[in-house]
Specification:
heterotrimer; A alpha+beta (286); B mainly alpha (418); C alpha/beta (709); B: two-stranded antiparallel ribbon; 2 strands; C: Rossmann fold; Dimethylsulfoxide Reductase, domain 2; six-stranded mixed beta barrel; binds ligand MGD; binds iron/sulfur cluster; binds molybdenum atom
């Protein structure tokens, strides 16, 4: 397609949960950037479209030992088992309405092709996919603020975080126009990343050692020795992924110095965590 | 009034009585159609589904009717391929039940998808990796086969059969039916299996995921097996109901016993496989993902261990044993009990493999999601049942569905007693 | 041709077969799906030329720089402005939602006049002359003090014009809504002299001791605080959070010290006692304290021993001692005050007590500490010419110092104390305690003029509404404040042409003044507000117009100010809460819900947790121990001396037992289905508590009874 895109990328994110304040800017920036609609009652979080959703986690202890952490959850852009591109959702979509971009690692969603079977939603353990139960409606006049970069979705289709794919397209176009081979780290940043007042989100190319996301995550290119479907584990002991053991291979990583927070990222049998928690990140769990 | 259409020598109730019955059930159909219209017009917001519960009552109903409709392919397979000749006396009815089940399944799918007018994208933009693609292809093809299997029976209607072309067509179709039955069995094998695969491949959902053979998770085989095992139970159950409603014996006991026996052995072998699968899943698969089996069966009263026990022991082991043992199998009450338990068991299995999956949280900080269907969902789920009743009533009245009916009811009282 | 049954059947079948093999069905199938992809009721955004306009957000006192992406003349996205001295990229969720305010269905599109219970549209000419007529009458009656005015803030040219109008008119009854800035100035005035204010150098401090300040919950200049907080880890700085509830700030802090609500002042004094006792204070600084420091020190040792402080506050003695010691021993400690966002009611004793800790450890005008500087008056308005009526008017005393005094006065007077009230960009009928009495006062004022962009609770009480441009439709200078260490004036620009028949508030004042004529008219002889700003901004205009902002002060201020301990040395009493319930109801500031004007945007409401708002119900936080047999999401009735409300409960281990937390910012009643009629307004349940000695409304909560509903 473009000669300026010879190199394959693997775009990913690392979110510092110790910095995240739960302020919600990322959620709103995403909604505003991507023409996400809203309705009268959004308090039922199970039918409220939030491509970026900030979860509140607690350590389960009682007053005053209680702790809270906020965990922003965009689509994890799963690479699937072995990172071969068979994301849980992509592999199940019967109409190829969601697809894996091998050159970007981005899991796309094609609204006009989706026919709303919702199989992908069932397959996604992160609840990152949202169905348009209603026709999107804006109060009269407000549709003027809609951005032409992202099509508003019609009722009856599934939508989700796209890693702001249109921003990637724009960056590529600009690079092409300037006669450059590739885009710079700062040219493609997602709307949640740029909005975050705490600077908790770092976005970039996990393949590019010069990018901050790579520096923080230090992804292990080899499959994990205990579970060969897991690829790209972080070699930073404070970095983890959500439900890493399932082999979904998310490209969204989380960072926290707090042990209970890291533990909350996955499921562990009784006693399991204590055995592996102090191990170096990369081999910390199977 | 409509006596010219009624099979020769068969006794049927008076037309007004028939019409009244149809009208009553028809009202239920209309209710369902109204709900369906609402859903198509206003969208899936008419349901109580949500983003956690994207698969709900309908998909369960869909899987359940397909499972119980499995009697058609399995009976066909036995009759035409394995030449179990006695089954010719129930095959017509098995096909009609299958036809009802599969047409219902297709209708449910057309209601269930968010963009019904784009439903065909599943064929046009097919993703070969998706179990649902396989389901769609096999389901549609098999429905076509069922239609073909159904046609000769329709053409045997007294009036239709008078047309020489139809008469010969029906006759010749019977002759080549083995080919269709074989195709049907093959297709059915795959779509029953791929329906099982739908759950088994969801490796993001520890409750659903199974290891397997090549691209097929164990649920693939378990679904096919269970449909073959429990499908005949449903055929027998509907036959029994039809006999009760019409007050006539329609199928000879030896046929019933044979089908029950086959079903019994299928159930027993299936449930052994299912138990092995469950144990492997609970002791190897799930702990490997850091979860204890308790995780799936605690936290709320609804999804407790009782559901596992009911599915496997009460509605699996027990009917299996009841049907393989001659004494219990040939006891009408116990046989009926076994058949009913079997049908409940397979439906419960489909419920678990669709709805319980959606309810269970996977992320450690996520919560259980429970849901109660809206009336629109209930109405549209009842719709196929009502439609099935009408179709059975009409076919029973006007088509020679049961070859043994005349013989079994040869001594007719002078006046109608129905 | 004879059509018999057979041929009819044949024809029918033939037709079906024919249609099936023809492309008609395929075509229809395809067309129908294409139709679903182009449903005319799903909007299609128009494409166009992309451009970016930078401006300044004034939704809150944060004054962040913003960058607005436009497609042709349509703004489509708001983001934080990189390299802006306050926020340097990043914006809060409200700022990002600005376009939802622009297109808010509750916007007032044209001037309105109250008729019966409804409003009717009128022309600007009529509206202005009605206002001018009323004002002239007031002047003719020689009671200019009966014109009162409420504005949102004290600084900036629009406030300047309101003040100018009031002065030229002859009324001293101009009030600002309580704001963090006003508390900073009150605190600074008490300790360092009038006309000063306080800024906190959070980004350089290595130990932030926060007495309930919601450092990441909208306190101060929110985005700036988020950034300073986020850099803590890298800088090795600590944050200790003292408050009854595990707020987000407490959760993010290095240590959370739960405290009995309303005892913060006592804790600060107890800590001061520790610092004095252990000789950890800055002796050189303390030597210059005025106003009875020695007396204070003695009182502290007596009344605020560790055991006494511990008993009052409910905090362990060791925790008090350790925290005070860590604070005093830190290199660049700073104690911050102003519970929650800092704009709710606060006790001046508490603010002064906390700030005294800064004074005590020498953190005044030191890097990483608290900066005391004069309030910069950067605008050069020409001297007003005053006629006799004006001179007489301004010689009369003001009804009181604070806005609650104004309403008190109106409510107790049998004759109208106020003949006409201007309300600019504030919502007292929603945001002040005991809203019932505020609305009652509005009912007693014959002529209320609202300068609002939105039909909110207060605008709904007005007789005339003069709708103003939203801030992204207008030019305006936006001075920072809100406890920032730097002083920056930003320029808010008209990013988009005004959508409706609204006006710039400055231009409206120019029109009113002109209509009044005389010396008043002469005081407003600018051609337009824009021209006025250009003139009065004087020396900084160049910088404002060129770079979008001007920096008035940055870095550590040089001269250390005086420190006057008189207020505390007088041993003022602490504020007590009203009521006789056995639980304490306290307000919660939630970053995702603005507590004052304007109300939240639909996007912000959408992000609010279902543990805060569920359906149409407010969910209050309560410790499981306090809740007893009550379960999550059970309904309860809260009863306070001021009102009752039915709410749901959320069992929250982060809430101190015995305390109930209710979010601020819900329960709006105006007409906007996305934001209104959701939950209850906590100000309907809490009444003002006037602090002895300062006169401010210092209610920190109220005693409440709870019963299963
Ligand atoms: N958020 C969002 N997501 C979207 C869309 C959207 O609008 N928004 N649009 C969707 C649509 S319509 C599409 S088509 C897809 C596009 O998504 P992709 O198909 O992923 O498109 P490109 O990113 O252009 O990637 C094409 C790849 O092909 C490489 N390439 C170019 N020329 C050649 C060649 O000659 N040979 C080979 N082997 N490779 C080549 C390029 O370097 C690039 O890596 O995105 C979909 N996803
Ligand atoms: N710069 C750049 N240009 C590209 C590409 C790229 O990568 N970069 N990719 C190319 C490719 S592969 C493709 S497919 C095209 C896609 O190019 P387009 O089709 O132009 O892009 P979209 O943004 O997908 O949609 C176009 C418009 O359709 C509107 N729309 C959305 N839903 C509906 C609807 O239901 N009805 C109607 N009438 N309109 C609707 C959207 O709001 C949007 O304004 O772009 C091509 N051009
Ligand atoms: S914007 Fe940043 S700090 Fe705020 S919730 Fe999102 S990630 Fe957390
Ligand atoms: S997070 Fe969910 S939607 Fe996103 S790629 Fe993974 S499975 Fe798919
Ligand atoms: S809902 Fe849409 S994207 Fe998801 S699986 Fe079905 S067709 Fe694919
Ligand atoms: S990457 Fe873009 S689409 Fe995804 S959550 Fe962030 S803002 Fe939304
Ligand atoms: S913090 Fe205040 S000034 Fe900054 S963007 Fe948010 S609302 Fe606007
Ligand atoms: Mo495309």
């Amino acid at each position: 397609m473009n000669k300026n895109d010879k190199k394959a990328h693997k775009f990913g994110m690392v979110i510092d949960l110790d910095k995240c304040t739960g302020c919600g800017s990322c959620m709103v920036s995403c909604m505003s950037e991507n023409n996400v609609p809203f309705k009268e009652d959004e308090s039922n979080k199970k039918d409220s479209i939030t491509w970026m959703r900030v979860y509140k986690l607690t350590n389960g202890k009682s007053f005053p030992e209680t702790e809270i952490v906020y965990l922003p959850r965009p689509c994890q852009h799963c690479g699937g088992k072995g990172d071969h591109g068979h994301s849980p959702c992509v592999s199940v979509c019967p109409a190829t309405a969601t697809d894996y971009g091998y050159d970007t690692g981005i899991v796309s969603q094609i609204y006009t092709r989706c026919f709303g079977c919702r199989y992908c939603m069932g397959a996604c353990p992160y609840h990152a996919r949202y169905f348009n139960w209603w026709d999107p409606k804006w109060p009269e006049g407000m549709e003027k603020y809609l951005s032409p970069d992202v099509s508003p979705r019609m009722r009856g289709v599934v939508e989700k975080c796209s890693f702001c794919y249109h921003r990637y397209q724009a960056a590529k176009d600009k690079a092409y126009y300037d006669g450059r081979e590739d885009i710079e780290e700062n040219e493609y940043q997602t709307a949640c990343t740029t909005a975050c007042p705490a600077g908790a989100i770092v976005f970039g190319d996990l393949y590019n050692p010069a990018h901050r996301v790579h520096e923080i995550v230090k992804p292990d290119p080899h499959p994990a020795s205990i579970n060969s479907t897991v690829v790209g584990k972080s070699r930073n002991p404070n970095v983890f992924r959500l439900l890493e053991r399932l082999g979904t291979n998310p490209k969204v990583y989380y960072l926290s110095e707090r042990e209970w927070v890291r533990k909350a990222g996955d499921n562990y049998l009784a006693g399991e965590w204590d055995k592996i928690k102090n191990h170096h990140g990369s081999e910390s769990h199977g | 009034m409509d006596s010219a259409l009624i099979p020769e020598g068969a006794k049927r109730c008076a037309f007004p009585k028939f019409a009244l019955g149809i009208a009553i059930v028809g009202a239920v159909v209309l209710w369902g159609v109204y709900a369906m219209g609402l859903i198509w017009w206003k969208g899936l917001n008419q349901t109580n589904m949500n983003d956690n519960y994207g698969f709900a009552l309908w998909i369960w109903a869909d899987l359940a009717v397909i499972a119980v409709g499995g009697g058609a392919f399995f009976t066909g397979l036995l009759k035409y391929i394995f030449k179990v000749d006695e089954l010719k006396n129930i095959i017509n009815f098995a096909v009609i039940i299958g036809f009802i089940c599969y047409s219902s399944a297709l209708l449910i799918l057309a209601i269930d998808i968010g963009q019904p007018l784009r439903g065909w994208f599943i064929f046009w933009h097919a993703n070969v990796h998706s179990m649902l693609t396989e389901v769609a292809f096999c389901l549609s093809c098999y429905f076509a086969v069922l239609t073909i299997e159904f046609i000769p029976n329709i053409l045997e209607n007294r009036q239709a059969n008078k047309v020489p072309f139809f008469h010969h067509l029906a006759h010749n179709m019977h002759g080549v039916m083995a080919v269709f039955a074989a195709t049907g069995a093959f297709l059915s094998f795959f779509h029953q299996g791929s329906l099982g695969g739908v759950a088994g491949v969801m490796y993001g959902r520890p409750f659903a995921v199974r290891e397997g053979l090549l691209i097929w998770p164990w649920t693939f085989f378990l679904f096919t097996w269970s449909a073959a095992a429990f499908g005949p139970c449903f055929t027998l159950l509907v036959t029994k109901i039809t006999e009760a409603v019409t007050g006539k014996k329609l199928v000879k006991d030896n046929v019933v016993h044979l089908l029950a026996k086959i079903s019994g052995w299928m159930i027993t072998t299936y449930i052994i496989a299912k138990i092995i699968d469950t144990i492997y899943w609970a002791t190897v698969t799930v702990p490997g993902l850091g979860l204890d089996i308790d995780h799936f069966y605690s936290n709320n009263a609804f999804y407790g261990y009782w559901i596992l026990f009911t599915e496997i022991i009460i509605c699996g082991v027990i009917p299996g044993l009841l049907l393989i043992m001659k004494s219990t199998r040939e006891n009408p009450t116990l046989r009926l009990l076994a058949i009913i338990l079997g049908v409940i068991g397979v439906c419960l299995n489909r419920w678990v493999m669709v709805l319980q999956i959606m309810a269970i949280p996977v992320m450690s900080f996520d919560t259980w999601a429970l849901y109660i269907p809206s009336w629109q969902e209930v109405a549209t789920t009842v719709l196929p049942v009502a439609y099935g009743i009408i179709l059975i009533a009409v076919t029973y009245r006007y088509l020679p569905v049961f070859p043994q009916e005349k013989e079994l009811n040869a001594v007719q009282p002078v006046t109608e007693t129905e | 041709m004879k059509v018999d049954r057979r041929s009819f059947l044949g024809l029918g079948l033939g037709a079906v077969a024919g249609i099936s093999v023809s492309p008609v069905i395929l075509k229809l199938t395809d067309d129908s799906s294409i139709w679903t992809q182009n449903w005319p009721w799903t909007p299609v955004p128009v494409d166009g030329e992309v451009s970016y306009v930078s401006s300044v957000c004034s939704l809150c006192p944060g004054s962040c720089g913003i960058s607005v992406r436009k497609i042709d003349d349509r703004p489509v996205k708001v983001e934080g402005l990189d390299e802006y001295p306050i926020n340097d990229g990043g914006a809060c969720l409200h700022g990002i939602s600005i376009l939802q305010y622009l297109y808010d269905p509750a916007r007032i599109k044209t001037p309105l006049k109250k008729k019966g219970d409804k409003f009717e549209e009128i022309s600007w000419d009529d509206a202005v002359s009605m206002v001018a007529k009323k004002l002239s009458d007031i002047r003719s009656a020689k009671t200019p003090e009966k014109l009162a005015c409420i504005i949102d803030k004290d600084q900036g040219s629009v406030s300047g014009l309101f003040k100018r109008l009031m002065k030229s008119f002859g009324s001293t009854n101009l009030y600002t809504m309580p704001s963090f800035e006003s508390y900073l100035e009150l605190t600074a005035a008490a300790l360092h002299g009038k006309g000063t204010t306080i800024g906190f150098d959070l980004e350089n401090s290595d130990f932030v001791l926060s007495f309930g300040a919601g450092v990441i919950e909208g306190w101060g200049s929110p985005v700036s605080c988020f950034k300073a907080n986020a850099s803590r880890k890298e800088r090795g700085a600590k944050l200790y959070q003292i408050e009854p509830r595990l707020s987000n700030t407490a959760a993010n802090a290095d240590k959370w010290v739960p405290i009995k609500p309303g005892t913060e002042a006592d804790l600060a004094l107890g800590m001061a006692a520790v610092i004095l006792k252990k000789n950890l204070f800055d002796a050189a600084a303390a030597a210059k304290f005025k106003g009875g420091f020695n007396k204070l020190a003695a009182t502290l040792q007596n009344d605020y021993s560790l055991s006494k402080t511990s008993e009052i506050t409910g905090i362990k003695e060791t925790d008090i001692e350790e925290t005070a010691t860590l604070f005093a021993k830190a290199k660049m400690p700073v104690a911050v005050f102003g519970k929650g966002r800092g704009d709710g009611s606060q006790s001046l004793k508490e603010l002064i007590a906390v700030h005294s800790l800064n004074c005590l450890v020498g953190s005044i005008n030191r890097k990483g500490g608290a900066f005391i500087q004069p309030v910069k008056n950067y605008l050069e308005f020409p001297e007003e010419s005053m006629d006799d009526a004006a001179k007489e008017g301004i010689a009369k005393p003001k009804f009181g110092q604070y806005v609650h005094d104004l309403f008190e006065k109106v409510n107790v007077s049998s004759q109208p104390a106020v003949e006409a009230l201007f309300v600019y960009q504030s919502n007292p009928c929603y945001a002040l305690h005991d809203t019932k009495t505020i609305k009652q006062a509005f009912g007693k004022i014959p002529f209320v003029v609202s300068f609002s962009s939105f039909m909110d609770e207060t605008a709904g009480e007005a007789d005339i509404i003069l709708p103003v441009h939203t801030f992204i439709e207008r030019l305006e200078d936006i001075p920072s404040g809100a406890g920032l260490a730097k002083m920056v004036v930003g320029l808010s620009k008209p990013v988009v042409k005004p959508l409706f028949n609204t006006k710039h508030p400055g231009d409206i004042l120019l029109l009113i003044a002109k209509a009044l004529g005389g010396s008043i008219g002469k005081n407003f002889e600018w051609a337009s507000y824009d021209k006025c700003l250009e003139t009065v901004a004087g020396s900084i205009w160049k910088s404002l117009s060129k770079s979008g902002h001007a920096i008035l002060a940055k870095g550590v201020p040089e001269a250390p100010p005086e420190v006057d301990m008189t207020f505390l040395a007088g041993n003022p009493a602490s504020v007590q809460s009203n009521g006789d319930g056995d639980l304490m109801l306290i307000p919660i500031d939630n970053m995702r819900l603005p507590s004052s004007a304007p109300a939240a945007a639909p996007f912000s409401i959408k992000t609010v947790s279902d543990e805060v708002l569920k359906g149409k119900d407010t969910v209050v936080e309560i410790n499981p121990k306090t809740a007893g047999s009550l379960k999550n999401y059970d309904y309860v009735t809260l009863t306070t001396p001021v009102g009752t409300a039915k709410v749901m409960i959320n069992l929250n281990d982060g809430m101190m037992p015995g305390v109930i937390g209710m979010v601020k910012g819900l329960g709006h009643t105006f007409d906007n289905k996305y934001v209104s009629n959701k939950g209850v307004n906590i100000n309907d349940l809490i009444g003002p508590v006037i602090e002895p000695g300062s006169g401010v409304d210092a209610a920190f909560g109220i005693k409440v009874k709870i019963s299963r509903a």
